[in-house]
Amino acid sequence: MSLRLATRALPRAQPARTFATTTYRMAAGDTGSPRSAAGGAGGDAFSKREHANEEMEIRRREKEKLEALKKKIADSEAQLSKDRAEAEELHKKQYNDVSLDQVRDVGK
């Protein structure tokens, strides 16, 4: 009988693979830099200009809405004045030329 030495190969120690990962950092205000709050201290010139344009558009719309409301109020006041004059005329016809103001004065 022959003696045989039983051996088996040991697993080789493989170096752990490490990947160097570095992030690309940009300075504040550079084109392509991470955006901060729009219009704030951060952000590049493009985002600041875009924010300013949005603000101008919002103000323009609000101004249009305000002008429309003022026109609506003026129209309502004109209609109210017209209705009061018509009521005065009807009252004069019904009560023989006695105006509403004279009737109000009698009640005091």
TrEMBL record:
The organism's place on the tree of life at top rank: Eukaryota
Region (Disordered): 25-58
Protein name per the record: ATPase inhibitor, mitochondrial
One Pfam family it belongs to: IATP
Main location: mitochondrion
InterPro entries: ATPase_inhibitor_mt
Keywords, in A-Z order: Coiled coil, Mitochondrion, Transit peptide
Subcellular location: Mitochondrion
GO terms for MF: ATPase inhibitor activity
GO CC annotations, alphabetized: mitochondrion
Residue ranges with Basic and acidic residues bias: 46-58
Function: Inhibits the enzyme activity of ATPase.
Family statement drawn from the similarity comment of this UniProt entry: Belongs to the ATPase inhibitor family.
Matches recorded under SUPFAM superfamilies: F1 ATPase inhibitor, IF1, C-terminal domain
